[in-house]
Amino acid sequence: MVIVLAAILALTGFIVLTRLLWLSKRPSTPTTVITVATLSLLVGLGILAATGRLHWIAAVGAALLPFLRRGVSVLRYLPIFKGLFGAYQQYGRRSENGGSGGSSQGGMSLEEAREILGLGANPSRDDIIAAHRRLMQKVHPDRGGSNYLAQQLNEAKRVLLKAAT
């Protein structure tokens, strides 16, 4: 009987919080209603988790779910997420411009290409192909390597072969 009451209590709190925090633009209800709904949700989920009827990770997820809509915008103010948020914004700007980083022209420079393939100042066509083949055998995606690294190697080879001809 206690389990059923706890489930009803948690469900009621969940529904009230979801309606207040997700379906309204700004909650005009007093904070007491939100506080009572939050407490009923936490108590109900706590009882269900303590009795083994609900896994504790699911209880935490269910308790946080109503606050998720308003809580995501707060994450950018936390120091650890600030770096991730900045990297995400920078990635978005890069993909909007269509570039892959690199130089200001949007392509890879000769210096970058030589550095990636580990070549000297004036490599021959055979040196470029041999260096590309040697490195590609290590980082090819079919051998558990990275798509990004393979892409960089291919771009470096393309840039250097174009400059060599």
Rounded radius of gyration (Å) = 28 Å
How would you characterize the largest beta sheet? none
DSSP helical segment count: 8
Shape: elongated
Structural class: mainly alpha
How would you sum up this structure, described in words?
- The protein is mostly helical.
- The chain is 68% helix and 0% strand.
- Helix 6 packs across helix 8 (147-164).
- The N and C termini lie far apart (82 Å).
- The model is unreliable at 97-105 (pLDDT under 50).
Keywords summarizing the entry:
mainly alpha; elongated; Helix Hairpins; 8 helices; 165 residues
Walk me through the topology.
Elements: H1 2-21, H2 31-50, H3 56-64, H4 68-71, H5 79-97, H6 110-117, H7 125-139, H8 147-164
Helix pairs in contact: 1-2, 2-3, 6-8, 7-8
Write a brief structural summary.
The protein is mainly α. The chain has helices at about 1-20, 30-50, 55-65, 70, 80-95, 110-115, 125-140, 145-165.
